[in-house]
Amino acid sequence: MRRTILFMMLWLTAATCAVQAEETGRRKEATPAHVRVGAERTEVYLPKIEGRRVAVLANHTAMAGGRHLVDMLCDEGIDVAGIFSPEHGFRGSADAGEHVSNSVDEKTGIPIWSLYDGGSQRPSEQTMQAFDVLLVDMQDVGLRFYTYYITMLRMMDACADAGRKVIVLDRPNPNGMYVDGPILDMKYKSGVGALPIPVVHGLTMAEIALMARGEGWCRPCDLEVVPCEGYTHQTRYTLPIAPSPNLPTQHSIYLYPSICPFEGTVCSLGRGTEHPFECYGHPDYRDGDFTFTPRSAAGAKNPPLKDRTCHGRDLRGLDDESVISAGFDLGYVIDAYGNLELGEEFFTPMFEKLVGVDYVRRMIIEGHTADEIRAVWQEDVERFRQQRRKYLLYDE
Length: 396
Fold this sequence. Notes:
By secondary structure, this protein is an alpha/beta fold. The chain has helices spanning 2-29, 42-49, 69-75, 125-128, 148-162, 205-214, 250-259, 320-326, 331-340, 350-355, 359-366, 370-388, and strands spanning 53-58, 63-64, 67-68, 79-85, 103-104, 111-114, 133-137, 165-169, 180-183, 198-200, 222-226, 279-282, 290-292, 310-314. The protein folds into 2 domains: 38-239, Uncharacterised protein PF07075, DUF1343 (Rossmann fold, 3-Layer(aba) Sandwich), CATH 3.40.50; 240-377, Alpha-Beta Complex (Aspartate Aminotransferase, domain 1).
């Protein structure tokens, strides 16, 4: 029996490598000269909102041809009733999970309604009556634990209850070229994981919205989407603006799937340094090739292991292609777990919320390799790939 299980894990791992190699080949073929994001396709959505009161769910990434979406709408004479701001705030400068108060946009005088003010993360009935249509425009990075899609889903539910229309202006997914990782066991549903999808889901915000409505994961709101032009899921899309304070580089965005699980351990992943999500370490890490000290900084006011010298690994020299081809790679966490020799004390309860299942921690403690653990979720990932296919707006 044990030999049969091992054979199946090896077979699934080999199959996974073949799929990833095929996807890598396709990635290198598709790099168009220009991608036109949904916000830039004004001819599609402006006629739908003229003469209506519009609320915008957006942040600093909502740029349309060199102008912010809100500024452009005002210039076009659209009645912008208010701005809903997600995690990190409208300007994108707040810490992860930091409470951000309601305010007013200094440039336009439009009220900003924070959805991260420490309250219910859902607008009041009075606020919902202040607009007719919700425009959604935020740059996501394609991970289950990245919170922008969760905020969108909550607003879709609120709009369904209030009879408000939702229009999602789509943007490319910089990690949209593959699907990998365990599917969330919904007993671990949290603010960093809301849907039964893999860690790397390969969907854009508009595709998530369509799938969530289609699969009954949210209330059936009146939903339209404005897709990108010139984009496929194999397009290598470099983000023009950092989507949040601790993802400052394209390399950190590619590493993010595999490094974020350190948030559920005793280690630092570089918050409070100039290279967050591009390294990992701990004061007691042995024989590390890199030393860093987390400090209080903008976007990381109180980082883990603040002011303590950490030893560990510098991942900035890794080639982007190798990072992408490795997918959701538990090898970094397994390395640190073995190095520190802390057993269960290495993990915190956040670990399961991030990876989404309970077997990953158990298998790491039992000494399994990253490939052996990956083999366990491969059948689930393949089922998800088939499930999501009817909601895709772009070629795979």
